[in-house]
Request: fold
Amino acid sequence: MKIERGDKYQFAHLTLQEYFAATALRDRENELIERFKNDPERWRETVKLWCGFAGNSTNLIEVIYQEDSLTAFECLADAQEVYPILAERIIEEFKDKLAEANSDENLARAFGAVASDVRERGRGKVVFEFLENALNNSESLEVRRASVKALSKTNLPQAADILFRYYEDVYLVDARLALINMGDIAVSLLKGLAEKGSETAMRDLVKIGTPYAREILNGLLYHSDEKIQRLAALNLAEFRSLNN
Reply:
C-alpha cells in the first residue's frame, strides 16, 4: 500500500522468508496458486505479498476467493490492480460480515488493512466510507462497535478523527478504548481535552504511554490553571511508575 505522499510503499504482512518466496514466484502465478491450495496456512502471507508485486492480481485473487474468501479480501489491501467487478463482489460480501469483526480479530484487521488505502476512487476509500457510515448511522450496536474496531486498525489520522467524535459517548465506550490503542495518532486529539482540564484525557495519555504523551502531560505542568497543573503532576507521577 502507498504511504506518505505516495512515493514509498509498505506491506502490511512481511517476514523475510515470505518476502523472498513472493519475489521468487513473481512470474509463476499458477505455481503459487497450487501451493496455496495445498497448504493455505503456510502460503497465505506470501499470497498477500505477491499481490503487492504483481501488476494485475485479478486471476490469483479470483481463485483464492473460491478457496478462502478472507484471504482474498486481505489481498485487496496490497493489490496494485484488480478488476473492479471482482473487488466490488468481495467487498460487498464482507460488508455483510462486519458485525463478526467484534469477535474475529483477523476480520477486523482485514477491514482495517483494506480501508487504510484511502486514495480517491480507490477500493480502500469505499471500505473506509462504509465503516464511517456504519459507525454514524447503523441502528445495530454490534455493527457500530465493529466499525470502531475496524477503523482503529487502519492507523489513519482521519480514522482517529472520526473515533474522537465518540470519545465521550457513554453508549460507545469502544471508541475511547480504540483511540487509546491507536497510540500517538490519538495524542494530539487528547491534548486539547487535557488542556481544558479533562482528567479522563490525562489518564488516557498515561495509558498510551509514549514519549509524545509524556511530553503533553509535562507541558501541562506550566498551565495557567493551577488545578490543571496539579492533575498533570499526579498523572505524570503515575506515568513514570507505569512506564519505567
